[in-house]
UniProtKB/TrEMBL annotation:
The keyword Protein biosynthesis does not apply. Keywords: Hydrolase, Signal. It comes from the Bacteria. Residues 1-27 form the signal peptide. It comes from Crossiella cryophila. One of its GO terms (molecular function) is lipase activity. This is Triacylglycerol esterase/lipase EstA (Alpha/beta hydrolase family). Transmembrane segments: none annotated. GO terms for biological process: lipid catabolic process.
Length: 292
């Protein structure tokens, strides 16, 4: 019995580290007041001919729109984009400041919330489609919307930062969880993680969420994908989980472009090299050479 308790404790602790650690930088430095990142959510913004699609930003697990996009949002705005962002996946009734820790609900629910936000953006801007830039969970969750909730007709370009299309095998968690379930401990683990972070188990390689998302191919025809990975990713392991094998996808590993780039999972959101890749992906007709 003591061994079983130890196994459950180890699994729950590791999962908590995974989801909280992935957004630790955002959660540790909460915004002075809840709100939009600089340059985002001007609902009077009308897209230009140069950038006809508004850009919708999706943050990572345990993060929020304010801090996750503090750097990239104003950069996109300065380049003439209409930029929009939301904090999603917060259970109803969550008090402040915990309600600033997003990405916790099951990703199917967050995808519905995301889709409603996209509809709102399209209505206010008059645009036909949006472009998506997502980080961590925000690189994965919106594809459920694209693939299953009608998003394929409303999304043009999809930029995924530190994506995990095949999930993560961090700390051998998928194997540990499978072993625990065989011992009959599944309900215990689900009962602990469910109220706290129900999306956590969905990130693991082999989860039901990922199996469904990958069925018949993860890439949705008609959407242009750009995937940006880092070899130093401490949350997505292996980092090649973010590689998308599809004709409508481009894949980049930061260190293949700039060998001395040291950005890991969190720093990707503020990395100047990543920003260059995002700008090129959103406007490929005017792509510029990458500078390290």
């Amino acid at each position: 019995m003591r061994t079983l308790r130890a196994l459950v404790f180890a699994l729950v602790t590791a999962l908590t580290v995974l989801v909280v650690g992935a957004g630790a930088a955002a959660a540790a430095v909460p915004p002075t007041e809840p709100g939009s990142p600089p340059g985002a959510n001007n609902w009077a913004c009308k897209p230009s001919k140069a950038h006809p699609e508004p850009v919708v930003l999706a943050h990572g697990a345990s993060a929020n729109m304010t801090v996750n996009w503090l750097t990239l949002s104003p950069q996109l705005k300065a380049r003439g984009y209409c930029v929009f962002a939301l904090t999603y996946g917060v259970p109803a009734g969550t008090p402040f400041p915990i309600n600033q820790i997003g990405g916790r609900l099951p990703m199917e629910q967050s995808a519905q919330e995301f889709g409603a936000f996209v509809d709102r953006v399209l209505k206010h801007t008059g645009a036909r489609k949006v472009d998506i830039v997502g980080h961590s969970e925000g690189s994965l969750m919106p594809n459920h919307y694209v693939k299953f909730l009608g998003g394929k007709d409303k999304v043009n370009r999809y930029v995924a930062l530190t994506p995990l299309w095949n999930g993560t095998e961090l700390l051998a968690l998928p194997r540990l969880l499978d072993f625990a379930r065989k011992l009959g401990l599944g309900p215990v683990i689900d009962g602990i993680m469910g109220p706290v972070f129900p999306s956590a188990l969905q990130f693991l390689n082999g989860s039901d969420f990922l199996k469904k998302l990958n069925q018949d191919g993860v890439a949705v025809p008609g959407v242009s994908y750009t995937n940006v990975m880092t070899r130093y990713d401490e949350a997505v392991w292996p980092h090649t989980s973010g590689w998308m094998h599809a004709p409508n996808a481009k894949n980049y590993v930061l260190q293949d472009l700039c060998p001395f780039n040291l950005s890991e999972h969190i720093l990707v959101a503020v990395d100047p090299l990543v920003a260059q890749l995002v700008f090129n992906a959103l406007d490929p007709a005017h792509a510029k050479p990458i500078r390290c």
